[in-house]
Amino acid sequence: MNREVVIRTDKLTKQFGDFIAADQLSIEVYAGEIFGFLGANGAGKTTAMRMLCGLSVPSSGTATIAGYDVYSQTEQIKKHIGYMSQKFSLYEDLTVRENIRFFGGIYGLSDKQIKEKSALLINTLGMEQMAAKLVADLPLGWKQKLAFSIAILHDPDIVFLDEPTGGVDPITRRQFWDLIYNAADRGITIFVTTHYMDEAEYCNRISMMVDGQVKALDTPANLKKQFNVATMDEVFFHLARSAKRKGD
């Protein structure tokens, strides 16, 4: 990880009528960093990520992703990022190999690159016996690992992961994080949302969202030290309780 800023937001806001889903978000994410975007369900994490990916136009504020503006350069942004949604974005009526080939084409890879990367991906995941199976027939954990691997098939600068480990057992979650570490070792910046507070420990730095606002941003160790607690659950509890008092 270096100090080159690849994601920068300043008072980035998304409002739906009278409801402010993401409120004046100001963050910086460094190249090669695993950056956790934590918060309870409904805290505004997905809304913020959709703005950063160029999928939703902000109501106000500014942001640049890999040097490109989220208002005027969304197509350039999409060429430099990978994205894995909560639904994994795979086509369940296609086989594993067909999904890889399809998304490789979408990412602009040549036939030779697709062939080489398909073989490497299938071998790395140990899916040789599953390559001809429909994605619909795969267990959830395998779908997650395949979706992530396809999201970085084109070696993007940044990959956005929206609640990637939801609904799976702790062992599969740990295996998924091994894939994240491997991607970070290759120089890919990881921006991951989660409501599992223990996953904060796997990140270089984290921001914590409460009611659409970033209430804390630092390393897990520094945040635990700041609040004099032992776990990230306790950090979040302090932040949520403080926000509730202000609301009252």
TrEMBL record:
Domain ABC transporter residue range list: 7-236
Transmembrane segments annotated in the record for this chain: none
Entry annotated with the keyword DNA-binding: no
Keyword Nucleotide-binding: yes
UniProt xrefs under InterPro entries: AAA+_ATPase, ABC_transporter-like_ATP-bd, P-loop_NTPase
Keywords for the protein's UniProt record, in alphabetical order: ATP-binding, Nucleotide-binding
Superkingdom of this protein's organism: Bacteria
Pfam families linked to this entry: ABC_tran
SMART domains, sorted: AAA
Protein name: ABC transporter domain-containing protein
Gene source species: Rurimicrobium arvi
